[in-house]
């Protein structure tokens, strides 16, 4: 059946993304709850590129750890995307707990995140804005990657991409060092840095690299992990902004210094993502085979409460 706004009863406003208002709604025919994202398009205006990207990317994807775009339809001058509904996201799960997450739960979310990211990369899609707030969590305990407004198709046979892309992508705390140095040619490794920062945040119960602005972000990363050597990151000096930004030489530090309470296998996994040279970061597919997921404590099914949403905490910057 062709969907229209008449197919739904709007229940409440959930939030506002860069291009549209998101509401919770009931599908009248089935009683199912869905999320509708309404994007207003003025007459004679074309669909914003971010919306177009989101639709194109999601049409390629079908995975339990990627949000499902169920329908797209017009409503007057607006464009409406109907998504499966999720009650929580990983950012508010982190906020609502005052204690670090139990390790089996960290493994559960990390494994689902990696499964979803592996699916994106297998389909040549860069997400470019992975962060806890873009990882929806259903009450049944499924993690779903969402917000494909910055997603792009890439050519996996060319490494890095043969055409320039914007470096102004990814929310600052999760932005890979090559983007911080202005890279225009990059790979899916930008998503893998973000994955490392997210898993590290789950283990540490605080963001690993909470920079206050773009320069401070680079400062926080370099001072946390140490200044990279040319051997470690051979292409660093060719990055557009490398010679524009100067910091003192920082001593080498390991991820263990950043997350002192994590287990050795957790540190090994995170350390394989938080590598300066994107070409040396582990892939999502390989990370799924990491011994972190093969040793006790094992991932468990996590069901999530819808109730405890009201704890205050710091939020990642939204740029
Ligand atoms: P976005 O435009 O994707 O950034 O979404 C804006 C806000 O709407 C998010 O911060 C969420 O609070 C909410 N939201 C988006 N998609 C969903 C969904 N599928 N289920 C529940 N809430 C959502």
From TrEMBL:
Main location: nucleus
Top enzyme class: transferase
Subcellular localization: Nucleus
Entry-linked SMART domains: S_TKc
EC number assigned by the record: 2.7.11.22
Pfam families in the record: Pkinase
Superkingdom as given in the UniProt entry: Eukaryota
Key words, A-Z: ATP-binding, Kinase, Nucleotide-binding, Nucleus, Serine/threonine-protein kinase, Transferase
Protein kinase domain sequence ranges: 8-293
Name by which UniProt lists this protein: cyclin-dependent kinase
One GO cellular component, as annotated: nucleus
């Amino acid at each position: 059946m062709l969907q229209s706004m008449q197919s739904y009863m709007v229940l409440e406003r959930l939030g506002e993304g860069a291009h549209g208002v998101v509401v919770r709604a009931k599908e009248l025919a089935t009683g199912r709850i869905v999320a509708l994202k309404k994007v207003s398009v003025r007459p004679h205006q074309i669909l914003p590129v971010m919306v177009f990207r989101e639709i194109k990317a999601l049409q390629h994807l079908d995975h339990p750890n990627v949000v499902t775009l169920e329908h797209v339809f017009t409503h007057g001058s607006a464009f409406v995307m109907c998504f499966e509904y999720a009650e929580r996201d990983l950012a508010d799960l982190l906020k609502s707990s005052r204690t670090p997450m139990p390790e089996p739960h960290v493994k559960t979310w990390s494994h689902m995140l990696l499964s979803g990211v592996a699916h994106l990369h297998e389909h040549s899609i860069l997400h470019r804005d992975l962060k806890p707030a873009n990882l929806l969590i259903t009450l049944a305990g499924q993690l779903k990657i969402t917000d494909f407004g910055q997603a792009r198709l890439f050519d996996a046979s060319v490494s890095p991409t043969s055409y320039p892309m914007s470096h102004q992508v990814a929310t600052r705390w999760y932005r890979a060092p090559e983007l911080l140095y202005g890279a225009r040619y990059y790979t899916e490794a930008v998503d893998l840095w973000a994955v490392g920062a997210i898993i590290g945040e789950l283990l540490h119960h605080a963001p690993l690299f909470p920079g206050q602005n773009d320069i401070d972000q680079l400062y926080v990363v370099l001072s946390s992990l140490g200044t990279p050597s040319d051997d470690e990151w051979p292409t660093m000096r060719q990055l557009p902004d490398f010679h524009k930004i100067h910091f003192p030489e920082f001593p080498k530090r390991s991820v263990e210094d950043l997350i002192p309470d994590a287990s050795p296998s957790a540190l090994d996994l995170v350390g394989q993502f938080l590598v300066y040279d994107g070409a040396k970061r582990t892939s999502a597919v390989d990370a799924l085979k990491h011994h972190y997921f093969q040793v006790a404590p094992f991932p468990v099914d996590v069901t999530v409460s819808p109730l405890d949403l009201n704890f205050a905490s710091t939020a990642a910057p939204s740029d």
